[in-house]
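Suppose you are handed a protein chain with no further information: no name, no annotation, nothing but its sequence. What can you learn? This example shows the usual starting point.
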Amino acid sequence: MRPIDDTGLLLAKYQADLFEYTVSALPCSSAYFYKRFAFSKLAVRMDRRRFIMEALDVPGAIEELQKEGNYTVGHVKAPPAVMAWIGYLTRYWSYTYEISTRVIYKYVKFDELCRLYEAYHSLDVEAAIQRINEAHNIKYLGDPEYKMDILRQMMR
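A reasonable first move is to predict its three-dimensional structure. Written in structure tokens, the prediction is:
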């Protein structure tokens, strides 16, 4: 696990702003946006640390996403605060655990994140991520428990 630094915080803030902006800027549902974003070229670039050097503002990112595909499916929107929290949380998670946005999407779907907002949005981001990991029994290479599981399997 990589400790959070200024770059990670800037990326998380940028993604929070992007997610919040989609509520008013895109006609699609928030859940549809989350799925499309997870598999977008923009998300892949954001998963790399170099993205912070790009001079791409939030409206520019929306234009880029719209060029990739159709963002008109659905109409149910999450509140802007919920979208900002989901954006911040998922980028922070991706950055610190060094996993892709796609992997996070596969771990936890949009509806679940929306349900968790009320209980988790006031927690420290790392604590919220840890609780989600525990709820889904997600383990990472750097996790001592994961290493113990591997050793147990090797000993059998």
